Amino acid sequence: MRILGVASASAALALGVAGNALACNIRDFSADATCDGNGKGIITVTDTDASAKEATVTVYLESNGADARMVGEKTVTGSRDGATVTFSEDWAPETKYRVHISVPKLVDADVSPILTTPAEACAPESESPSPSESPKPSETPSTSETPSDSATPSDSESSDAPATPGDNQPSAAAGESNLAETGANSSTPVIAGIAGALVVVGGGAVFFGMRRRGASKAN
C-alpha cells in the first residue's frame, strides 16, 4: 500500500506539471515592430500557446509612462507553431508600445518587456523604374505629291502655230479697202488742185479788173 501511494503521488505530480506546462500564460506571447513590403510600420504579436486558447490582444501607444492612445484590439488563437496577429502602425523610431494579453481565467497581463520600436523608421521602397517606352516607329514618309498637270498652253501660245503659206499676203478685198481709205485710186486730189488754181486766177483777174476800172473813172 505504501508503494502504491508513492506511485499515485508521483503520477499526480507529473500530471500537474504537465498541465501547468500546457496551460496558457503570458510567456507564450511576444511582440515585435517591423515594416511591411510597402514601407509601412506594423506591430506583430505572436502566440505560441499550445493549448490553443483564444486571447485578446490590445496595443497601446505609450507616452511618458501612460497610454497615449489605443492602436487596436484583435483576438488570436494560440498554436504550438505560433499564431500571429498584426496591427498597422506608422511607428516612429524608438517609440514604446504596451501590449496587453487577456485570456479568461488564465492571463491578464502585459507582454514583458515593453515593446520599443527600432532606431530607424520604415523607408518606402524605391519604385522600380518603369521600362522605357519603346520608341514609336517613325511615321512612313508621306508620298511626294504628284506633280501637277502641266499647264495647258494659253491661247496666245496655241496661236503661234506656223501660218500656212499665203496667210501674210493681203487679200484683194483688203487692198481695195485700204486704197479707198487713202484715196490713192481716185482723181479727187487732181480735181481739187485745178479748182483751187482756177479760184486763185479768177480772184486775181477780178482784183486787177476792179483796179483798172477805178483808175479810168478817176481820169
Outline the structure in words.
The protein is α+β, with helices and mostly antiparallel strands and 219 residues long. The protein has a domain at 23-116: Sandwich (Immunoglobulin-like). Helices cover 31% and strands 26% of the residues. It has helices at 2-22, 155-158, 172-182, 188-218, and strands at residues 29-35, 41-47, 54-63, 66-77, 83-88, 96-103, 107-110, 115-116. The strands form two sheets. Strands 3, 4, 6, 7 and 8 form a five-stranded antiparallel beta sheet that branches. β1 (29-35) and β2 (41-47) form a beta hairpin. The longest helix is centred in the C-terminal third of the chain and has 31 residues, at 188-218. The N and C termini lie far apart (230 Å). 12% of the residues are buried.
Mean pLDDT: 76
Give the distance, in angstroms, between the N- and C-terminal Cα atoms: 230 Å
Total strands: the figure is: 8
CATH architecture of the domain at 23-116: Sandwich
Q: What fraction of the residues are assigned to beta strands by DSSP? A: 25-35%
Cα gyration radius (Å): 69 Å
The CATH topology annotation of the domain at 23-116 reads as Immunoglobulin-like
- Helix % is 25-40%
Largest sheet: 5 strands, antiparallel
Shape: rod-shaped
Topology order in helix (H) and strand (E) letters: HEEEEEEEEHHH
